Amino acid sequence: MFRTIATSAAILVFLALVGAVAGPRWDPVPVSDHLVPATSDTTIQGVDPEIADRIGDVGQFEVLETPVTIPLDGVEVGGLLRQPLDEAGEVLADRPGVVYVHGAGTGKSTEAFTESATALASAGVVTLVPDKRLDTYTTRDRDYVAMAADYEHSVELLRTTEGVDPERVGAYGESEGTWIVPVMQAKDPDLAFTVLVSAPVVPPRVQAAFAVDNYLRNTGVPEQVFRAIPRAVGMQLPGGGFEYVDFDVRPWLEQQTAPVLVVYGTADPSMPIEQGARQIIADTSVSGDDAPVTVRFYAGANHGIHVVLDGGMALHPDFGRDVSTWVQGLPGTADAAPRIAGDTPGQLYLALPVPQPFWWGNGDIVVGGVLMGAGLIVLGPLVWVVHAGVRRTVRRRAAVPAPRLARGLGSAVAGLGAGSVATMVALVVYLLAVARLALDYQRDDLVVQGGWVGVRLLGVATAVAAALVLRRVTDVRAARRAVPAGAEAAGAAAAEAQDVAVARGWPAHLTLWCVLVGSVVLLFTLAYWGVYQLGI
Asked: Which domains can be identified in the chain, with CATH numbers?
């Protein structure tokens, strides 16, 4: 018992050391200098009195919705045009226009931005929501510069639309779309303004790590789980592609010349809302010719600037008013005080470059290692079973002794293989369950805390099985060395030597080595993902 406990402890410490040195730690830097809005009132100031009577309120005008077709390079996409109407039912003249640029979760013009685009149109702004082009957009591959060129066709269409002042057309991007809109403005300096809603600013890989960190904190996961963030987000993702995860929008922000409205919801845990606002203000002034920036934070608003109203989710009641006033009041509203207003943001940590993994930096190797380890654990016993079936069929029992492992070794090897696979499966199931809770903004201590304890207990049991295998192999080899060697070792001594062999027959040897190698691969992988952390 003492030897088993001591060996198990040594294995656990060794696996903890492997996990510690195999990849980067996760030590996010707290935000020490917080933004303080000048006022909690988000109302846009700076409207020129001479045009004040031309600035409508949300809901003031009837809205005409018209499906349109937008020609791109070689293909066409649909779109939905919304135009404000006067009391006679005629399209209002000389109105500003806004082209909407989709985030990662939106695609159809009939389903995306319906509240926002309708609110702006009802206040006197012509809006165009194009369908997202999907033939060049996949999870693995996307090109933000090429996407900007596609959306530019919508800008050109809106500039030629009835009732639109072509010199007052701008772009509205949300989330992923805010990596595209600055490219559009840099390549088309005539774009009159940009609205950046829930802008990550940092590259997608950095934003993903920041979001995962916040989601996990909201879910209440154990501290040990956070080490997986840089190891998952920082590695080269399996299968290749994903080059866009390192896209840097800041060089494009530095080329901005048009006014920028920056909007965040203070209940959005996925975005670095303070850091993003600061960075946009800083980057747009690099060229020496500042692009005026206005920042608004909305209390209780989520990623899409929605809040809970009457038991459901709806656009923040002040958002449409503020955006439509800012757009219609330009250029006076572009640099009107206060620059930063609204709810006080509370970003906890900075979104910084993600540390790169060391040995497991290639996702293909990580996935391949898991598949190889599990495959070897299954392969060895499978070959043994097939061999046993063939042997029974040809009835060679007398000629060839049945393969076997030393007494007590078979059960320990079975426990090691089964435990390695079970712990890996449990870890994957646990991470998927935590991801579901995190994305749904839910907490469940039984799943989050209890599940992690369960995964680690399985890992400890597997380490004990490994200790039993080592102890049994050591005992058998010691007993074998005690048997007399040489030609004189015959009769009972030779029989005793055969009885204390670790494995007899090639199927037994193959099974033993397959399970041992496969289990070591899985145990090292489990250590890498933090199952065996001991505070090292």
From this structure: 2-26+361-528 (no CATH), 52-203+247-339 (3.40.50.1820)
